[in-house]
């Protein structure tokens, strides 16, 4: 008797299932049984590919953190186009409507996961740390183009934007609207912008 469906990309399908549960039900609902049920496979599948559930979660979090790399490339390519405020607001909205907000309580919720991540992650919380790097790289690219002031401290502005966006999006059933995100970005970086604001 079959115990589930055959998975072609086991890790990818299990990670996608974990992301859906995390976004829909929060970190306390994320169990190995919930993940395999969501993926439509037998529970043993997860344990054949990972040492234990915390090992699975660590790989899941790191996979999602590395996905920010693609967003970094896209945002940096946008430098010099549109407006600085608009580009940042769009990037932050995309980031925080994804799994980024949900990763923070997941990491703080599970001691075993934090211990696993400390083995490979240098510092900070994955996804948010990558997001700070993304924003800093973009701001540096815009500073090089003269669209923000030469004295703008991009390494200070980037964590301010990520932290403020996290507070704005965190723990809300309804995410903030575009105008609210634009207003927040303008408040944080407005003094550094050298272009007409949107």
Provide structural commentary.
This protein has 198 residues and is mainly α. The chain has helices at 10-25, 32-39, 43-49, 53-66, 68-77, 84-96, 100-109, 111-120, 128-144, 154-169, 178-189. The protein folds into 2 domains: 8-49, Homeodomain-like (Arc Repressor Mutant, subunit A, Orthogonal Bundle); 66-192, Tetracycline Repressor, domain 2. It contains 11 helices and no strands. The radius of gyration is 19 Å and the shape is elongated. It comes from Actinophytocola gossypii. Pfam families: TetR_N.
Q: Provide the β-strand percentage band.
A: under 5%
Q: Quick one: CATH superfamily of the largest domain?
A: Tetracycline Repressor, domain 2
The average pLDDT value, as a whole number, equals 86
Task: Decide which structural class fits the backbone.
Answer: mainly alpha
Rg measurement, Å: 19 Å
Distance between the termini: 60 Å
Enumerate how many helices there are, as a single number: 11
Shape: elongated
Low-confidence spans: pLDDT under 50, at least 5 residues?
A: 1-7
CATH topology assignment of the largest domain: Tetracycline Repressor, domain 2
Number of separate domains? 2
Order of helices and strands: HHHHHHHHHHH
Biggest sheet, in brief? none
């Amino acid at each position: 008797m079959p115990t589930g469906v055959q998975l072609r990309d086991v890790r990818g399908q299990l990670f996608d299932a974990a992301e859906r549960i995390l976004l829909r039900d929060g970190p306390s609902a994320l169990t190995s049984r919930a993940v395999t049920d969501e993926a439509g496979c037998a529970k043993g599948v997860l344990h054949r590919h990972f040492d234990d559930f915390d090992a699975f979660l660590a790989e899941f979090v790191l996979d999602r953190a590395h996905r920010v790399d693609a967003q970094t490339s896209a945002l940096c390519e946008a430098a010099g186009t549109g407006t600085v405020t608009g580009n940042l607001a769009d990037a932050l909205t995309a980031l925080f409507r994804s799994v980024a907000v949900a990763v923070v309580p997941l990491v703080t919720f599970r001691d075993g996961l934090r211990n696993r991540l400390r083995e490979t992650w240098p510092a900070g919380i994955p996804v948010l740390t990558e997001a700070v790097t993304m924003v800093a790289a973009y701001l540096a690219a815009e500073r090089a183009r003269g669209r923000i002031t030469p004295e703008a401290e991009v390494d200070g502005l980037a964590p301010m934007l990520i932290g403020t966006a996290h507070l704005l999006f965190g723990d809300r059933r309804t995410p903030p609207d575009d105008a609210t995100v634009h207003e927040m970005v303008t408040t944080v970086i407005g003094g550094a912008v050298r272009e007409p604001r949107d």
